[in-house]
Amino acid sequence: MKHYLFATLIFTALAGMFVQCQKAVAAEENQQSEITKTAGKSESTIGTNSPSDLSILIPTSYRKTSKGYPKNVENKNWFELYKEEKTGKWLIGKADLQISYDRDECSGDDVMILKSKNENAVLFFTNFKGLNENPETILENKPLFPEYNISFKFKGNEYMLSPMGRVVDDQQYVIPSSMVREKTDQELTDSQITNYVLSFSVDDDSYNLATINKIEFSTPKIIWIGDLNGDNLPDMILDLSDSYEVQHLFFYLSDSTDKEKPLKKVGDILVVSDC
């Protein structure tokens, strides 16, 4: 009887070990299956985070005492939008940030200098949902002077950027709208703009993207417009600096769930370089 009970206990223990082993094998197979599924997804889509988590930087020098001085740069995973020199194509890739430190002789401040191995990088940013390594470019490097509307078509929709404002010459005389339209971009570069408003139209709906009280000797312009997050709607990077002594970039991403205002500002960065 004792031998029978002992044999039963041994059999039960072995059976339990066998079941646990089978469960472990099954769990490992499931995990491997999920990895395989993930690996099988298109590598062109690399974004995961929501825009609320977004951080942005630009390749420039940052004064330590300035409001926009970067913090915890090394602890974040950065991507960049850059123009490939050989092909002229705009791409997104992992940013290989080159960080150095120096002193600004003009202000006397210590500075952090951010660069990329890609000299044509225009913006560094953290990951976000839908980020695509092969974005579709619509427009690049276009001035946004008042009275010069910029329209474009994308995926069957009509879009327009409408800059408004009063252009003042170097003698502080207001230039009439009719004369502004006759001037070249170069002729307007040394002008001042007051009450600047930039509106964005989608088909027949229009709303404001930015309002700036005064722009002094700086050219508001499109850095890049295209589709970054793969939703077939335009995203934008704009330079709306209000002075030649600052850099102020605005980053807009599309929101396909908002039909009335599909383009939203998700970040802007201001860097001061005055003396």
Indicate the low-confidence ranges by residue numbers: 1-11, 17-46
Oligomer state equals: single chain
State the major sheet: 5 strands, antiparallel
> Which strand order spans the largest sheet, edge to edge or round the barrel?
8-14-15-16-17
The helix count comes to: 3
Characterise the protein shown here:
The chain contains 3 helices and 17 strands. It has one domain. By secondary structure, the chain is α+β, with helices and mostly antiparallel strands. Helix content is 17%, strand content 43%. It is globular. A hairpin with a 6-residue loop joins strand 15 and strand 16. The strands form 4 sheets. A 5-stranded antiparallel beta sheet has the order 8-14-15-16-17, with no helix packed on it. The N terminus is likely disordered.
Quick overview:
This protein has 275 residues and is an alpha+beta fold. The protein contains 3 helices and 17 strands. Helix content is 17%, strand content 43%.
Topology, element by element:
Layout: H1 2-39, E1 56-57, E2 61-63, E3 78-83, E4 90-94, E5 97-103, E6 110-116, E7 121-126, E8 136-143, E9 150-154, E10 157-168, E11 174-175, H2 177-182, H3 185-188, E12 192-202, E13 205-216, E14 221-227, E15 235-239, E16 246-254, E17 263-272
Antiparallel strand pairs: 1-7, 2-6, 3-4, 3-7, 5-6, 8-14, 9-10, 10-11, 10-12, 12-13, 14-15, 15-16, 16-17
Labels describing this entry:
3 helices; disordered N terminus; alpha+beta; five-stranded antiparallel beta sheet
